[in-house]
Amino acid sequence: MPIYNPPLRDMQFVLHEVFHVADELKALPAHADTDADTINAVIEEAGKFASEVIFPLNITGDQEGCMLDRTTHEVTTPKGFKEAYAKYVEGGWPALSCDPAFGGQGLPFVVSQCTFEMMNSANQAWTMYPGLSHGAYEALVAHGTEEQKKTYLPKLTSGEWTGTMCLTEPQCGTDLGMLRTRAEPQVDGTYKLTGNKIFISAGEHDMAPNIIHLVLARLPDAPKGSKGISLFAVPKYHVNADGSLGERNPIYCGGLEHKMGIHGNATAQIVIDGAIGSLVGQPHKGLAAMFVMMNAARLGVGNQSLGLTEVAYQNALAYAKDRVQMRSLTGPKAKDKEADPIIVHPDVRKMLLTAKAYAEGGRALQIFCTLLLDKEHDHPDEKVRKDSGELVALLTPIVKAFITDNGHIATHACMQVFGGHGFITEWGMEQFTRDNRINMIYEGTNTIQSLDLLGRKILGNNGASLKKFGKLVGALVAEEGVNEKMSEFITPVAMLGEQLTKFTTEIGFKGFQNPDEVGAAAVDYLRVAGHFVFGYLFARMAQVALREIAAGNTDPFYVAKLQTARFYFAKLFPETATLMRTARAGSKVLMDTDAALA
Questions:
Q1: 275 vs 249: CA distance, rounded Å
Q2: What's the start-to-end Cα distance of the chain, in Å?
Q3: 186 Cβ partners below 8 Å, 6+ apart?
Q4: Share of the chain above pLDDT 70, in %
Q5: List of E strands, 421-462
Q6: DSSP-based three-state secondary structure for 453
Q7: Which residues, in sequence order, are CB contacts of 527 under 8 Å at separation 6+?
Q8: Distance between CA 598 and CA 581 in Å, rounded?
Q9: Cα atoms in the 13 Å half-sphere on the side-chain side of 581
C-alpha cells in the first residue's frame, strides 16, 4: 500500500525562508494579520485531512469509480467520498481563501495553494470536486450580478453546493468558436439553454445537494466564432427566493466517460434540455468571464501534477531504500544482506532526484505565483498590482504545462524505480501515472499553453513581460554574482537569460514571416522558459541554504537542498541546449511532410 507524508518542512522553507510570505502579506491590508504561526497551523491541519481522510480513499476510489443510474441521471461516487466531503465542509476548508463577505475566512491564496497541493497528493480525483467549485466561485465573484452573488456565493463558499465549468462539446474542444449550445432569452430575464457538453469534471455527483454549472452558450443574435459566446449560471436545482431548493432543472448527466485515470471523479456527458439559467457578465463576452475560472483551473492543474510528483517520489524513495537487488558497482554496501538496496545504483538515484527536483521546483513556482496573485488582488499600490498580474499571466502557462510535463516524467520515473511492482495496482504507482496523464490535456493542452506563452504572453507584447521576469533574475545575479559559492547556481541562469533573449527575438522574426514557425517552436520554447524560471527559483533556494550553513546551522535539510539544486543544474537544466536547437530546426521539417503522412 502507498504512503503519504505532507511535505510541511519544505513548504515552510519556501514560504518563510525563501519568500518571507508573512512579511510580504503585511503590506496587504486584507492579510496583514496572517502571520507565520497561522499559516503553519493551517497547513499542518490540512496535511492531516489530506493524509488521514482522503488518502485512504485513493486506491479504492480508483477501483470503484463512479456509477450512473440512467433512469434518474444521478451519480454515486466511490465509497467514502461523500463522507469525506462532509468532513471537508465541516472543517471549513472550502471557505479558506474566500471573501468574508460571503462567509469565507479570507486567508491568502498562497495558503490555499499549499492545502490543495497536499489534497492532490492524497487523492486527485476527490480533490477535483472542491477544486472546480472554487473556480466557479472566482468567476462569479469577478463577473456575477449582485443577485447571482447573493444566491450562489455563500453556498459555494461554505461548500454546501459545488460548481463546474461546462465548455467542451463533441465537435468543440480547444476551438470554442465552434460551440453550438443555444440560449434563448425568456420574458422574465432568464435564458433557456439547449445543447450537449462532454468531459465535464465533477459534472454530477452525490456529495452536495446542488451543483452550479457555468455554461458557455450562444444567444440568438450571437456573431460567429469566439466573439459570440456568452456565459450562464445554470443550477442543477432551481433556487427559491428564500434560498431553499426548488424544482429540478433539466440539465443532467447522460453518461460517464470511461477513462484512463481519475476514476473517482465523475467526468460527465451533460445534456441540457431547456434548462433555465442566468447570464453571467455581458452578452457575447462569456470567454472573458470564463477565463477567470480557466486561469484558476490552469494553476490548479499544475498543482495536481505537483501533488502527484510529490507522492510518487515519497513512495519510490521508500521502496528504493527497502528493495534489495544486486550489489553496488563499487562494492557491497549492505554487507549484512544478500544484495544492496537499489538506492545505491546511480540510475535509481537519477530517477528519484528527478522527481524530487521537479517537486521542489514546482512547489516554489506555485507558491511564488499564488503570492503574486495575492498581491494582484489586494496590494494597495496600483503598480504592484499591475506588475504582479502581468507576471502571473506570463507564468500561468508555464505552471500548467511545465509542471504537468514534469509530473509525467516524474511519475513514470518513480514507477520505473519499482520495476515490475510498479506495474502492479496494489503499490499505487501506476495509478499516479494514469491520474497525472489527464493533467497534460485538459484546461488547454500543453501545446495550447505553449502557443499562449510564446504567441500571446511574450511576442504579443514584444517581450515586455519576459523582461519583467528577467529583472528579478538580474537582481539576483547582481546580488550574488561575486559570490563564488553561488556561481554554480547563478551562472547557468544568467547565461540562459542572455540566450533566451536572442532565442525569442529570432523566433519572433521568423514567426513574422511565417506563423508556422511559432507553432513549430512553441512547445520547446515553453520548456526552455520553464527551466529559466525553475533555475531562478533553485538559485534562490540555494542562496538561503548556503547562508544557513555558513551561519552554523547543522540541519541536514539545507545540505539536501543544495544537493538537489546541484543535481537539477547538472542533469535537468542542460536540456535547454537541445530544446533551443530543435526549436531552431524550424517548421519546414514538420510541414513539408505530406508524403510522410499520406
A1: 5
A2: 48
A3: 192, 276
A4: 100
A5: none
A6: helix
A7: 402, 405, 575, 576, 579
A8: 27
A9: 5
Helix (H, G, I), strand (E, B) or coil at 300: helix
Task: Tell me how far apart the alpha carbons of residues 311 and 296 are, in angstroms, rounded to a whole number.
Answer: 23
Within 8 A by CB and 6+ apart from 86, the residues are none
Strand partners, 78: none
Handedness of CA 292, 293, 294, 298 (dihedral sign): positive
Residue 268's H or E segment, with its range, is strand 267-280
Cα–Cα distance measured from residue 13 to residue 5, given in angstroms and rounded to the nearest whole number: 16
Give the Cα separation of 457 and 463 in Å (integer).
8
Q: What angle do CA 118, 202, 248 make, to 5 degrees?
A: 140
Q: Which residue pairs, CB below 8 angstroms and at least 24 apart, start in 25-28?
A: 25/108, 25/374, 27/379, 27/380, 28/108, 28/374, 28/375, 28/378, 28/379, 28/380
Look-up of cell digits 469565507: 104
What lies within 8 Å, CB to CB, of 355 at 6+ separation is 309, 312, 313, 316, 410, 411, 413, 414
Per-residue pLDDT tens for 52-100? 999 999 999 999 999 999 999 999 999 999 999 999 999 999 999 999 9
**HSE toward the beta carbon, residue 296, CA cutoff 13 A:** 28
Whole-number pLDDT of residue 288: 84
Q: Average pLDDT for residues 360-367, to the nearest whole number? A: 98
CA atoms of 15 and 12, how far apart (whole Å): 5
Q: Are 386 and 455 in contact (CB under 8 A)?
A: no
b or e along 432-449 (b: 16 or more beta carbons within 10 Å of the residue's beta carbon)? Answer: bbbbbbbbbbbbbbbbbb
C-alpha to C-alpha distance for 585 and 523, rounded to whole angstroms: 13
Write the single-letter amino acid at 544.
V
pLDDT at residue 313 in the model: 98
pLDDT(293) > 80: no
Please report the pLDDT score of residue 73 as a whole number: 96
Q: How far apart are CA 21 and CA 111, in angstroms?
A: 10
CA angle, 565 then 410 then 174, to 5°: 115
H or E element that contains 125:
helix 109-143
pLDDT of amino acid 295: 82
* H runs (alpha helix) in 246-381: 286-322, 346-378
Distances (CA, A) of 367 to 6, 512, 544: 16, 35, 16
* Among the listed residues 345, 304, 342, 360, the one whose alpha carbon sits nearest the alpha carbon of residue 569: 360
- pLDDT reading at 580 higher than 90: yes
Strands 182-185 and 230-235: unpaired
Four-residue CA torsion sign, 450, 473, 569, 372: negative
Where in the sequence numbering do the catalytic residues fall?
443
Report residue 310: phi and psi, to 5°.
-65, -50
3-state secondary structure at position 247: strand
Q: Identify the band that residue 494 occupies on the pLDDT scale cut at 50, 70 and 90.
A: very high
- Side-chain half-sphere exposure of 596, counting CA atoms within 13 A: 6
d(CA 262, CA 466): 35
Nearest CA to 153 out of 257, 233, 56, 63 is that of 233
